[in-house]
């Protein structure tokens, strides 16, 4: 499932479309489009994307100071920039044809994920209740929400209204690097642990972006390439275990991440 580092890579694809004109928009599967095609034709077609930005797992392509295309990638979505071709990748759901002979393709194999449009991006973000981006949040702001939280530390990291961008996979990695048990309650940690967690969160997200969110390119000390029951823990050589929290399966090392 695309998380902050993946969406940052999609942003780099979107950036290639800045200063081009979107000549046409083709919707091949309307289930993925949370906006009328006529609205896209009116406010996006014929326009130049001026800026891209990202908040958590959402990508925004600004068509003016407030009009924006909004993309969310669900479980399997991605955005790709390529030369125009009639031979589209399977599961292409929406296509933006650019005047430089290239195109942006929104591709998603499974049903979740959506392309939307708003005339007021700030109001849209407020309404959605998205917290600050996990890479942008200051240490002071992070520590203040950390202090207030009473939930399991993993639920805290993945709560998009507190901080946006971290999902199942990167939460497990951050907690592994910090040596913290995913189910330990946030309020049972020392205040210094909050600082430690913030440092690991920044480090893991930046490293993942640098390595193009590719598990094969991540350092040997990372858990992500070893997300399998019984895999060898890169920290202690023991066995990686799975666990379930809020109905989702995660991975951790019981020896390196004691409660
Ligand atoms: Zn271990």
Describe, in plain words, how this protein is organized in 3D.
By secondary structure, the protein is of the alpha+beta class. The chain folds into two domains: 4-128, N-terminal domain of MutM-like DNA repair proteins (Alpha-Beta Barrel), CATH 3.20.190; 139-252, Helicase, Ruva Protein, domain 3, CATH 1.10.8.50. Helices cover 29% and strands 21% of the residues. It is built from seven helices and ten strands. It has helices at 4-15, 37-43, 121-128, 139-148, 153-158, 168-178, 191-210, and strands at 22-27, 51-55, 58-62, 68-72, 78-83, 92-98, 102-107, 114-118, 241-245, 248-252. The strands form three sheets. The protein has a four-stranded antiparallel β-sheet. Helix 1 crosses helix 7 (191-210), helix 4 packs across helix 7 (191-210) and helix 6 packs across helix 7. The two termini are 27 Å apart. The mean pLDDT is 96. The structure holds zinc ion. Zinc ion (ZN) is lined by residues 233, 235-236, 238, 253, 255-256.
Number of helices: 7
Report how far apart the termini are: 27 Å
* Whole-number tally of structural domains: 2
Uncertain runs are: none
Strands, total number: 10
Bound molecules: zinc ion
Helical content stands at 25-40%
């Amino acid at each position: 499932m695309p998380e902050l580092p993946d969406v940052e890579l999609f942003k780099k694809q979107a950036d290639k479309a800045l200063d081009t004109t979107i000549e046409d928009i083709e919707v091949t599967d309307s289930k993925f489009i949370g906006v009328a095609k006529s609205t896209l034709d009116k406010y996006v077609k014929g326009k130049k994307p001026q800026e891209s930005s990202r908040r958590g797992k959402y990508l925004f392509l600004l068509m003016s100071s407030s009009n924006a295309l909004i993309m969310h990638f669900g479980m399997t979505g991605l955005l790709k920039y390529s030369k125009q071709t009639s031979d589209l990748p399977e599961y292409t759901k929406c296509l933006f044809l650019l005047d430089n002979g290239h195109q942006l393709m929104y591709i998603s194999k499974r049903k979740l994920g959506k392309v939307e449009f708003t005339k007021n991006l700030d109001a849209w973000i407020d309404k959605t209740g998205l917290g600050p981006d996990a890479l942008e949040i200051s240490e002071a702001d992070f520590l203040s929400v950390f202090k207030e939280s009473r939930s399991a530390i993993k639920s805290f990291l993945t709560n998009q209204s507190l901080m946006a961008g971290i999902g199942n996979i990167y939460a497990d990695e951050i907690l592994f690097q910090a040596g913290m048990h995913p189910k330990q309650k946030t309020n049972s940690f020392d205040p210094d642990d909050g600082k430690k967690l913030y440092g690991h969160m920044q480090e893991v997200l930046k490293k993942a972006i640098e390595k193009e969110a590719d598990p094969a390119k991540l350092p040997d000390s990372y858990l992500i390439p070893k997300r399998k029951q019984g895999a060898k823990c890169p920290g202690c050589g023991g066995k990686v275990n799975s666990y379930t929290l809020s109905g989702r399966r995660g991975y951790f090392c019981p020896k390196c991440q004691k409660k």
